[in-house]
Amino acid sequence: MLIKIFTSLIMLFVVFMGFKQGAAMIAGKPESIAIFEKANLNPFWQMLFGAFTMAGAIFILHPQLYKSGNIIMAISILIIICMQLSFKEIKSALIELPFLSLNLLLIYLQYPLAN
What distance lies between CA 50 and its chain's CA centroid? Predict the structure, then answer.
């Protein structure tokens, strides 16, 4: 029972952060799209990546799409980490690692609201 509560709290945090980050990318906030500008990606791709991230966050809430949503979120975080490492922004890449580990932990713990 305690593990399900813990997993539910982590899930809500991951969904909130994924939705927040995706909305920031779609809105074009400078702190969210700085790495995309360094990679010379135009605003269309930034918005598409933001929508991809938001979709993954929403998928996590549905039991049938739970694992897919976590995988989508993990892939989007890995893409950001790879872009940051390609520009030698090691500190920024290290900041993303706990968020990646939360998605991987959620995949391991399974959907918390199922029987």
Answer: 10
